[in-house]
Amino acid sequence: MTNHWIDIKNADYILAMGSNPVKNHPISFKWILKAIEKGATLISVDPRYTRTSKKAHLYAPLRSGSDIAFLGGMIKYILEKRLYFEAYVREYTNASFLISPDFKMPGENEGVFSGLTALKTAEGYVDGKYDKTTWAYQKDENGIIKKDKTMKDPNCVLQLLKKHFSRYTLDTVSSITGTPKDKLEAVYATYAKSGAPDKTGTVLYAMGWTQHTVGVQNIRTMSIIQLLLGNMGMAGGGVNALRGESNVQGSTDHCLLYHIIPGYLKTPKASQPTFKAYNEASTPKTTDPMSANWWSNYPKYSASLLREMYGKEVPLEDAYRYLPKLDDGVDYSWLTIFDQLYQEKFTGFFSWGQNPTCSGANANKTRQALTKLDWLVNVNLFDNETGSFWRGPGMEPEKIKTEVFLLPCAASYEKEGSITNSGRWMQWRYKAVEPPGQARPDGDIINDLYVRLKKLYSGKGWFAGEGVFADPIVKLRWEYGPKDRNGNVKHIDPHMVAKEINGYFLENRVVKGRLFNSGDLVPDFTYLSADGSTSSGNWLYCNSYTKEGNMAARRRKEDPSGIGLYPGWSWCWPLNRRIIYNRASVDLNGKPWAPNKPVIEWHLNVWRGDVPDGGWPPLSAGGKSRYPFIMKTEGHGHIFGPGLTDGPFPEHYEPLESPLDRNPLSPQFVSPTIKRWDRDGLTNNMNMRATNDPNYPIICTTYRVTEHWQTGLMTRWQPWLAELEPAMFVEISKELADQKGIKNGEIVIVKSARGELEAVAMVTVRWLPFTVMGKTLHQVGIPYHYGWATTATRPYDPKDKKPEVFTFGDSANIVTPNIGDANTMIPESKVFMVDVVKKA
Asked: Which fold has domain 6-246?
């Protein structure tokens, strides 16, 4: 979230799209109600009429997978009627930047952007990659980007944006999305009102936007709208992701994903053999003196991270050499890992705090992949479908070689530590009770694993033999708890971990006129150094644990801002800044665009309010100032986004599995840069695809319910929750039920090209048919939380031989495809094709 949960109350217009906050993030609705009490308008755009839709002032349906078309129509509407915030757009975005005249867009280039190298097939380009040469900015002799502040040059971003989305007319968008034109216009006209300088609009999205082959571009499209309307950096504005777990933000910050290391630093590549080469490749450069180009500090953050990992005794170059490197052009995403596992490319797998046989796309393939392992370590609170995959449906245990180890771990309230929520607020949690039995905190399990590995690598035998690269393990710095007489950490102390993440001075230094001694905690990341004299496990969290104490543990309730910043409650990265890019919330003189809810204000030559996004004076100060979007090399918000894999502007492409035989906008059917798992030559149904297939005529999507948590591991065995949501169900419209002869409560089979799923039919008015390209299309929905263990063969209480209540069904991912977003490889679980039939 660029803003935070409480800030929702400051919005004048709230767009819930790709999310259902009332049902899936119920606490967020507290702040939505606060906004509504002050006169805000809530808009719900969703394929299904949800509880959020019921509470909304305005609801519009749309076919899953058509969000870019819907939002592209809004962009056209805003531009055509000149409803954008012109001063903001001109000064704070790249709308005035001039792009190469050789750049071509899909409307003039067979549905793709210029620079594509790809195989051309009957359905368009596939297996493509873009050469971005023509996407470049025009620059003058000093390397400064050329701009046209009138924004009338045909090569400037604003004019290109107009040209690109000129094809997204109301008729076209309605025919693609199935949204009636009057609903489109109502949403567009209402949300565009947030473009007034003293008004703001916020968007609340979740996996309804991300889990698509164009997931990143879904969010990009809304980001463009927020920039056009001047909603970034403002109270009640921003682009805000409603995370599905309390610590998704924190785990991502600390490098849950394969392509980053802590603090969103880049994972080194094999083509970057030296630390110098790595830093040069990772550090952006600009000649514009007005650009803060904050990532120019990259070497400070990478050096400090290496110092935390390997200490001062190991030269930085050696420490860098110890880091694993990605092979160039290879991704290590979830889908790739399980495909490689399925093809027997590796033999062991740690499943840590997850349940991939239920949560992973194309679950049958995932489950079969586990049968090919030599060993599987399942670290979790309880046994689950992953640890017991060999017991599952269709499995023959006597033929499965995989040896499974269960390591029981402590639940969140059985250990101390921090979480960082969606709004970037790091909050400390204390241990309430001891973990039961042999369950232990994850950190202690990792610690034991490290101690044993270090001993093996330090000794004799295979682990320390010739050709074994032992140094990355043996020389790893491990200062995370009290030690025994052999120098090994006995147990993990979360406070010591938090301090290491914050970072230390490693030698006596004078910085900014202040003397720091070796061993002092670094006050914030502006004190980090590239010369190896500081450490920090994550530069973004430098300032979270200082000599003043544990900032995340603070619980002060004062709010001098009056708009809900609460700067003394917990700690927020970066630097306790509650709303990022907040210098865009003021005009060139530092006065708030919305004086009724100021985030910051230039007053008596200082900023007051939130921690400013850079302490420079307002832009009216000229060379003493800096552009407000400091994390962007150019210092401006990206309406034109040249950094993405699949295009600098969003474009509507059909999902991989679509009910249509063509893309209504162009000859290019699906995004040309996605990795096509259905093209890998497998002859079984592991990667099968069904597009415009009469055997699978119904659109399907997945979603969550309030009563269950993720794959249901912690909730399906609770009788009161299971009574509320006892089993897998499929929501279908009355029209489809009549067509299929299905009655409410009957058992049906949901079938895709990959598998079949048993479910209870829930006939409902929440789904209505869509009219798309002149065709009547039906859509259904299934929840995400179930697994094979919720069948009649496994009651809630194993001691109960004749339970009164049984559940049945399996994971929704039995029927989802394995296909991923071109940028992130997140699976497209929100739209695919199925059939629904009565169980024989």
From this structure: Dimethylsulfoxide Reductase; domain 2 (3.40.228)
